[in-house]
Task: structure prediction
Amino acid sequence: MGQARITGSELTVEAWIRIDEVRGEWQAIVQKVDLASYTYGYSIRLDAANHLQFFVANSSEGTACSVTDANPIPEGDWLHIAGTFDSGSCSLFLGGTAVDSEVGTIETVGYHTDSLFIGHPSSLNPGGFVGAIDEVRISSTARYSGAFTPNSEFSVDADTSALWHMDEGVGVSVGDVSGNNNVGTLNGGDWIIP
Result:
């Protein structure tokens, strides 16, 4: 999915998701991390108990900022998820409501050269995300600080680093409409157009 490079003190990662199966293992939704050590970058994912988690890591400044929803995510419903990072503070939102927040030990997002992945399998989640992912946006600002009503389709603004509507429906190319050329490749998934 390209680089979607964020190195400053603010970040938002958001998407619409539908979980089709509780796997009992980690499932990455959107991640741009150092896959060898998970010490740089960001990720929004499900843990092995199906709890939503967001973390930002930068080992050159400390460890990480990490937040987790106390409740498991239900199967079958479309849900808006968002993780924000603002100068060391992480917040996690589900359906426009904050479910966890924390002040971490880092001030900026750690950058590395690994690509950004959406629903991608890794050593922690060998099967990948089981469900559907739509409307993925990465922003260089903390878009949300309190309750909000999520938009069903995201738009581009000056803070949008990457935006994939995920509505191509055919082929393997996933277009980034942000203008930043973070074009992706569908690998091992199928198009689901409602």
Notes: The mean pLDDT is 82.
